[in-house]
């Protein structure tokens, strides 16, 4: 099964329980947005892998003048996002498609956010990072929070069943394409795994 189809099938079920379960291990999402706000007032925001829209709501509230675009390959996740985002009207556009760059809007985004999605794009995460570099305005920010690694082989295998790769592969690639303003790795649950935050500008 192709990776995109496998993830769509995965989220056909998990979309129903996503918001009531993922808070327990998707750490750092709200903090990432506050750290963006301390540096930047974006006018045009893209979130890749927007899921059920929780980050889009945070950003719509935190950046009330901004226009936002959310992109996800799961129709089931976007159905929930649309309901959640109704109060924000046409400020927020949702796109049902995988991310392969957005040439019609190239260089128009001054903030691109990826929250716990890069670690699930296997293969193809390198191309996503390269395309973000092309779609980001010259003075824009990339902001990422995601799984980093784990010393526990059994836990890594279990996460692999859930389409997550945790081998520390993302942060070095991000640092190749972007100059870091904030690159932090933190422990979760006493070190069962580590997650990272990265905020950078085009290098």
Quick overview of this protein structure:
The protein is of the alpha/beta class and 203 residues long. It is 36% helix and 29% strand.
Number of strands: 7
What is the beta-strand fraction? 25-35%
Q: Give the end-to-end Cα distance, rounded to a whole number of Å.
A: 36 Å
| CATH superfamily grouping | Vaccinia Virus protein VP39
Description:
- There is one protein chain.
- This protein has 203 residues and is α/β, with parallel strands linked by helices.
- The chain has one domain: Rossmann fold (3-Layer(aba) Sandwich).
- It contains 8 helices and 7 strands; from the N terminus they run αααβαβαββαβααββ.
- The protein has a 7-stranded mixed beta sheet.
- The N and C termini lie far apart (36 Å).
What are the main properties of this structure?
Methyltransf_25; 29% strand; methyltransferase activity; Rossmann fold; seven-stranded mixed sheet; SAM-dependent_MTases_sf; alpha/beta; 203 residues; single chain; methyltransferase
Per-chain topology:
Elements: H1 3-14, H2 18-21, H3 29-37, E1 44-48, H4 54-62, E2 67-72, H5 75-85, E3 92-96, E4 109-115, H6 125-135, E5 136-149, H7 153-161, H8 170-177, E6 178-188, E7 193-202
Parallel strand pairs: 1-2, 1-4, 2-3, 4-5
Antiparallel strand pairs: 5-7, 6-7
Helix pairs in contact: 3-4, 6-8
